[in-house]
Amino acid sequence: MNHTVWQALAVNAAVCLAVALTVGVIAFAVGTARQRHRVVDVAWGLGFAAIAVTGLYLSEGHGDPVRRWVVTAATVVWGIRLAVHIGWRSRGHGEDPRYERLLAKAPGDRTWYALRMVYLLQAGLIWFISLPVQVAQYDASDVDGWLYAGAAVWLVGFGFEAVSDHQLARFRSDPANRGRVLDSGLWRYSRHPNYFGDACVWWGLFLIAAGGLPGAATVLSPLVMTYFLAAKTGRPLMDAHMSRTRPGYADYIRRTSGFIPLPPRRS
Prior knowledge:
Helix 2 (39-58) packs antiparallel against helix 3. The chain has helices at residues 3-34, 39-58, 65-90, 97-104, 110-129, 131-136, 145-172, 193-209, 213-216, 220-232, 235-245, 249-255. The model has no long low-confidence stretch (mean pLDDT 94). By secondary structure, the protein is an all-alpha fold. The chain folds into two domains: 1-143, no CATH class; 161-267, no CATH class.
């Protein structure tokens, strides 16, 4: 990248941060009006999609067209599918217990605490995790093996996430499964195949950007995403919730991999 491209990328990063914050503030307004801050989960995917579209527009004339469109389409498809899935899954439900517990600890006004600790914090994470997408859109080098490898990993991840979400939704739609644990399909090999797929999506997007030094330097983005999914807010919180509400979940934990899909262990 020459000096002009670096300047354009810096402007892009600033604009994309503003876009992420705007999405967060809009989600905050909706969540506050409805008294359901779980709307922020829908805004998660939409924020990434908005940044990808913004970067596609701003990077016109800078990056390789194929790479720009591939990384944008991959991000938008992933983000929109996730937003629609979460919105459909949460319809008719009250507040998410995670946010109830978080806001119960608010030292002052719960509304402004929610803005800071839920919406604006998430907006910052969206911006940071999306850095590989932003950088890839400004990469003018010819299409190479990194793009193909990244697209392949993205496809695996997207498939895992979409299929496992569908399997779980179908399982929950059957009243006979109330209180039971899904341990078939992809859920036989991982307790959280959707989270694993999500992580693969972002490693794939990183690989698309990793052909040059600027893109390779964004490796912290998929690492942060994987950390949150596997060790911070994803798997640990879900395992704790399921252990409290599903009698058979302890046995499921003993025989099923927590994240990476593996053959089940003997009980």
